[in-house]
Design goal:
The protein is mostly helical. Helix content is 60%, strand content 4%. It is built from 16 helices and 6 strands. A two-stranded antiparallel ribbon has the order 1-2. Strands 3-4 form a two-stranded antiparallel ribbon. A two-stranded antiparallel sheet has the order 5-6. β1 (10-11) and β2 (17-18) form a beta hairpin. α4 (150-175) crosses α14 (382-395) and α11 packs across α13 (346-372).
Amino acid sequence: MSGAASPLGTPHEGGRPHNDDGVPDPGELTGIPRGAAPPRARPPLSHAMRDAGIAALVALGLFVPLVGLRTDVGPMGGGLIIRTRWADVAILVALVFAGRLALNLWESFRPERKPQTAQRTALLLRIGTLVAPVLLLFAIAFPVLPGTTRYGLDLGILVLTYVMLGWGLNIVVGLAGLLDLGYVAFYAVGAYSYALLSTSFGWSFWVCLPLAGIMAAFWGVLLGFPVLRLRGDYLAIVTLAFGEIIRVVLINWVSLTGGPNGISGIPRPSFFGLTFSAGGGPGSFADFFGLEPSPTHRVMFLYYLILVLALLTNWVTIRLRRQPLGRAWEALREDEIACRALGINVTNTKLTAFAIGAMFGGFAGAFFATRQAFISPESFTFIESAIILAIVVLGGLGSQLGVALAALVMIGGFEAFRDLEEWRMLVFGGAMVVIMVWRPRGLVSTRTPSISLGKRRAISGDLVGEGHG
């Protein structure tokens, strides 16, 4: 019977049946037939060439004054002369044009990106659980490994310092979703707190360390109050201004901070009362343990000291993340309006994020002061905040392992390019651009929910909101 209705449904435009239950199928209200989505439109080659040409013009405007013109001392000290390097400018502009064109063509003709499957996410999580213990064992054994030099130990201390700073800022940016561009201010508060207390009152490092953290946390709360109603770019501007205010105060309050001259003669930490003296002697570390006096002992002690402080930061962060406070941070990052609707005190949540993140920055600052034995305002400029924020973003917002890997790549990689002299910043910046294009969500984008119903499964970072502060 050709006129009888099929039990599966009535005929639909295009010959496909549909259920005649009174509920319109997707597409029926708008008149769009059901089916596969149309293929993505490919931009023409002329569009890619035009975009690459614009990038080359921007690069030309930047490289002409920065690379093309250079001042040198004239012969026999006769003043300054301008030396041109147009060939270098042409090479750089050509590289920018070719790179931008290749990127546009790759974006146009690459296959559609498929969503990350649960199996792949679980595989990446298992890899991460193996990488973290390996890195920890390597960090513990690094000072005693064959071939480790004094330069390697100093570089390890520097990397671990930025790992600790990155983990501290990760609380504010990665977990709470508050964009902070003035984190170096808390770093400076911790350093100057220890320097002033130790030089003025003769207090030891172990007494001043918690006080430096408390002082930095206090300033974190002071910063938190004015920015409670700010989000996004406005929050970033205020935190940037806070960092600059601290730096300007350190420069101009000469009677307290020493001004541009800084503070010198900061005491070194001791090992349970044992000092580290290059010549040995009674009461020294080498004399107590019967070792040959060596300046390497103090460097190794500082390495393990910052390693313990960094691991303490990581442990506290992980513990807090699983507590109601940590879940409130993540709720604030995902949606502040929904967070308020759930009855969460947004004011206290923001203040605790700023205070705890600032406290770890203060700890790192106190360590920096005792390691250098000298501090000045030049050590706490905006570029330090930018580097720490870049470590957090490059590693993956909210990822502890990612921050550690990013600090190793950025700080260690910067040293690897030191032989390139004036070109190292260009090479290093280009490498960062490539990484962020390849991994826009950071090196480690997989996330494990802090709390879940049933079995806890890792999810892709694409499904996690990053917040707007």
